[in-house]
Every structure is written in C-alpha cells, then in structure tokens.
Amino acid sequence: MAAAPTSPVSPPTTGPGTAAALATEPRTAPADTGTVTGTGTYTVLTGGRVVLPTGTVDGGRVIVQGGRIVGSAPEGAPTVDLSGHWIVPGFVDMHNHGGGGASFTSGSHEDVLKGVRTHREHGTTTVVASTVTGELDFLARRAGVLSELVEQGDLAGIHFEGPFISPCRKGAHSEALLRHPDPADVLTLVKAARGTARMMTLAAELPGGLESVRLLTDHGVIAALGHTDATYEQTVEAIDAGATVATHLFNAMPPLGHRAPGPIAALLEDERVTVELINDGTHLHPAALGVALRCAGASRVAFITDAMDAAGFGDGTYALGPLEVEVKDGVARVVENGSIAGSTLTLDTAFKRAATIDGLGVEDVVRAISANPARLLGLSDRVGSLEPGKDADAVILDADFTLKGVLHKGAWVVDPRTA
C-alpha cells in the first residue's frame, strides 16, 4: 500500500497577496506582484479545484493574460467555467525518449516536434528529450540537433541516458556501444549540447565515474545514478560527489538486499536525492511505489514516463537506438532478450493511476509530476505551479482524473469546452 493520502480538498490558510488568495479573491486592481502588463488577451478559468503550492482551493480562479498567469483581470474578462474539474499545473517530464511514433534520439526536427505534441496533448507541457546509448560522435551531433529545439523553446533540455552505464544493468541499451565515463568524453557531450544539457545518467562505480559526477556538477548538469551495479558504499560516495537523481529507481539496478542494500537504500535514505518513478503498473509494483514514497516523501519523488516512440501511438515494432523493440499490449520489450524497453506511458495516465489505484493525495501527485521536476531542472521560476508570473501551463481533469483540457502558454492544446 502507498502512504496514507493527504487531503486534497482542505482549503489552505490564505491572506492578501498569497498565491491562494490570488486564485480566490476577485480583484480589479493590479496585484502587488506577478501581474503582466502589455499585450495579450485575458482568460479566467473559474469554478474548478485549483491546486496551488499552498494547497487546494475549491471554486478557485486562474487568470491568464497572453501566455502568462497574472494576479488580476479587468471587469468583463472572458471566463471558462470548470466547475467539477481539477485545475493542476502542466506536467513536467524530465525523462522522455519520444512518442507519437517519433524518436528524440534519431528523428528529424519535425519528428521530435511530433513527439512533443503527442505528450503535450496528454498534459506534459514541459519535456526534456532523452537520448539512448550510441556512438559518442553520433550523440554529440544529436545534441546539436536537439539543442536547436531547446533554444527555440520546444524542449526544456537534453538528458543523456548512456553510454556511460554498466553492462551488467544495461536494460534496453546496446552493450557494444557502452563505455566507461571518461570525464573527457562526458565533457564532449556537455559541450555539444551548448548549454542545454540538463541531466546525464551514468554508473558512477565505473572507472572515471566519480570524476564525471563532479564534472557534471561543476557544469550545472544533474548527475543521475542509473543503469548501475554499484554497492551501497559506492552509491553513497557518488552522492557525496554531487549526484542528486536516481534514474528510474528500482529498475536497472541491484535489488534491495538485507546484507547488500545496494544503491536503492542509499538513494532512498539521502535527502539530497530525488528518485524517478515510472508509474505505469509494469515497471513498479504498487508496493514498491509505496515504499519509495514513504522513504523519500512527496518532496523527493519525480514521476517520469521514460517513454519511447510508441507512447500515444500503439503496438508494433520500433527501433530504440540500434535495438529492435516490440510493443504488445502497451508494453515495450527488446526483441533480442525481452528486457523492458522504456514505456508507452503518458503522464496523464501516471497521474490518474497515482490518484486512484495508488491512493495518493492530489497535492502529492502534483508535486511529483510538476513541481519537483521543475525545481530539479532549474525551471521553477517559469513552470511547475500555478502562480502569477509563470507560464500559463495547466491541465484540466474531471472528477475521475481523466484529462479534459491542456493549456500551454495560454493556448488550448485540448479545449475542455469541446473535449
């Protein structure tokens, strides 16, 4: 069982000028902070249960001007009645390999944008593009391609998953292309990304691993531990060197043992580490999810998709880097060895599962699916919560947590009035 859910409906204590007050108090005068002046029409989302950093407000309001959330609107501003619905921040996916039939590792610009649009339609308004293991030169060239889309604002950054991972825990990565995390090679990829690298997954127990963790940290790139065969002691050493994320906790690492606790215990117990979880019902048993939440707490969990091309597209045969992958009944596996090959998950499904099957409080789900990844990626000044001054990214869910609307920078991707 998961941790006992927190109440998603109790209104928080509010006061003038607080985020909750801005959502509930009708105003005509400009707010003290967060009001955006200038061009852009107003839209007021009304009547819904608005999830704010301070708590949930029944019958709240989210005021949008152009592409931003603001603190006030003029009299007569158009409204969208969302009574009976949840209004939550747009989802932030920090580990995603593609979707809609398109790969972030090998697709053209238009392919990548197709994948982004597919996930956006499922509520993910901020996407980091993850690559899979390949030749170093190829990954460097790929970083150049993806960095252009980051600079255009279509992606939030690049995550390198491999090639610096353990052959013992390679998962859906080509063993022939794996290599030790030589700091010079790590730096090659960081530089190729031209300032857009957000995260790199590596096995820090390999030669050069600790030095590479320190290098990444010095360059402002998240060092994530994953696809690792590290011991408990080696993992602690890597965390002390600067690693702050566990790549899809439990998956592609040694299991928790009573004499050999391995990386899982070290990652769960350290307050400096945020753990990724793939909540699709395939990668994790609900009891494992519950253990992670109880040990790490809602503030240290990030729900991810680890999605591959088939997300939002369907069963069939796909390529994941050089590997052939078969997707059957929504589960992706490497044809050669049967290893799970990422997921076909979208974050609206992860949200609904967490709030219904896993019994998590809605506010905790929002932390895991929006606020925490935004903070980790250094984007919390723009996304991850419904606050004045931030991008107008929001997801509308009905009472059963089915997606009914997606707002991205003030424009409806999925319009709840017609969904």
UniProtKB/TrEMBL annotation:
<feature type="domain" description="Amidohydrolase-related">
    <location>
        <begin position="86"/>
        <end position="411"/>
    </location>
</feature>
<feature type="binding site">
    <location>
        <position position="259"/>
    </location>
    <ligand>
        <name>substrate</name>
    </ligand>
</feature>
<protein>
    <recommendedName>
        <fullName>N-acetylglucosamine-6-phosphate deacetylase</fullName>
        <ecNumber>3.5.1.25</ecNumber>
    </recommendedName>
</protein>
<feature type="binding site">
    <location>
        <position position="161"/>
    </location>
    <ligand>
        <name>Zn(2+)</name>
    </ligand>
</feature>
<keyword id="KW-0378">Hydrolase</keyword>
<dbReference type="GO" id="GO:0008448">
    <property type="term" value="F:N-acetylglucosamine-6-phosphate deacetylase activity"/>
</dbReference>
<comment type="pathway">
    <text>Amino-sugar metabolism; N-acetylneuraminate degradation; D-fructose 6-phosphate from N-acetylneuraminate: step 4/5.</text>
</comment>
<feature type="binding site">
    <location>
        <position position="283"/>
    </location>
    <ligand>
        <name>substrate</name>
    </ligand>
</feature>
<feature type="compositionally biased region" description="Low complexity">
    <location>
        <begin position="15"/>
        <end position="24"/>
    </location>
</feature>
<dbReference type="GO" id="GO:0046872">
    <property type="term" value="F:metal ion binding"/>
</dbReference>
<dbReference type="InterPro" id="IPR011059">
    <property type="entry name" value="Metal-dep_hydrolase_composite"/>
</dbReference>
<dbReference type="InterPro" id="IPR003764">
    <property type="entry name" value="GlcNAc_6-P_deAcase"/>
</dbReference>
<comment type="similarity">
    <text>Belongs to the metallo-dependent hydrolases superfamily. NagA family.</text>
</comment>
<feature type="binding site">
    <location>
        <begin position="340"/>
        <end position="342"/>
    </location>
    <ligand>
        <name>substrate</name>
    </ligand>
</feature>
<feature type="active site" description="Proton donor/acceptor">
    <location>
        <position position="306"/>
    </location>
</feature>
<feature type="binding site">
    <location>
        <position position="248"/>
    </location>
    <ligand>
        <name>Zn(2+)</name>
    </ligand>
</feature>
<keyword id="KW-0479">Metal-binding</keyword>
<feature type="region of interest" description="Disordered">
    <location>
        <begin position="1"/>
        <end position="36"/>
    </location>
</feature>
<dbReference type="Pfam" id="PF01979">
    <property type="entry name" value="Amidohydro_1"/>
</dbReference>
<keyword id="KW-0119">Carbohydrate metabolism</keyword>
<feature type="binding site">
    <location>
        <position position="172"/>
    </location>
    <ligand>
        <name>substrate</name>
    </ligand>
</feature>
<feature type="binding site">
    <location>
        <begin position="251"/>
        <end position="252"/>
    </location>
    <ligand>
        <name>substrate</name>
    </ligand>
</feature>
<feature type="binding site">
    <location>
        <position position="227"/>
    </location>
    <ligand>
        <name>Zn(2+)</name>
    </ligand>
</feature>
<dbReference type="InterPro" id="IPR032466">
    <property type="entry name" value="Metal_Hydrolase"/>
</dbReference>
<dbReference type="InterPro" id="IPR006680">
    <property type="entry name" value="Amidohydro-rel"/>
</dbReference>
<dbReference type="GO" id="GO:0006046">
    <property type="term" value="P:N-acetylglucosamine catabolic process"/>
</dbReference>
